[in-house]
Amino acid sequence: MIKTRLCAVAAFALAAALSGCAIHITSSKDGDSASVKTPGSTQFECVASPSGECNYALFTSRCESVGGEGNTSTTTCTHQVFEQFKLSVGQSKQLNHLPSGYKQCMKSSGKPEVPSCS
């Protein structure tokens, strides 16, 4: 199983490198996911998961800092989930026209909690 997972990740990374794309591997304590990013689009792949699936939440964050007394500031962030989906191990999904600066959370069982990704 580990050898298969390493081969899948290596093949995914090689394909990304040859195409000039950025690759990102998300690992949680109980699953792995890979994403290949090109300008405006990303392909997500569920590489390995004990539950047999990878659950994704894609979101954007907007943070605002407000100055306070004594040179202190408070930062408040608003997070907006714009896409949630589930992939079975071995499946992939291509998404286009993604907002710039989006973030992702992945969890192998259950819905990921944004922004902590737990």
Distance between the termini: 25 Å
Per the principal axes of the C-alpha atoms, what is the gross shape? elongated
Q: Major sheet: size, sense and barrel closure?
A: 4 strands, antiparallel
SSE-based structural type: alpha+beta
Give the SSE string: HEEEEEEE
Stretches where pLDDT falls below 50 for ≥5 residues? 1-20
Number of extended strands: 7
Arrangement of strands in the largest sheet: 1-2-3-6
Number of helices: 1
Q: What number of domains? A: 1
**Mean pLDDT over all positions:** 78
Strand content: over 45%
- Helix residue percentage: 10-25%
Gyration radius (Cα, Å) is 17 Å
Folded structure, characterized:
It is a single chain. 15% of the residues lie in helices and 54% in strands. The strands form two sheets. A four-stranded antiparallel beta sheet has the order 1-2-3-6, with helices on one face. A three-stranded antiparallel beta sheet has the order 5-4-7, with no helix packed on it. The protein has one helix spanning 2-19; strands at residues 22-28, 31-38, 41-48, 53-67, 73-88, 92-96, 103-107. The chain is elongated, with a radius of gyration of 17 Å. Residues 1-20 have low confidence and may be disordered. The chain has one domain (2-107).
Structure characteristics:
disordered N terminus; 4-stranded antiparallel sheet; alpha+beta; 118 residues; single chain; elongated; 1 helix
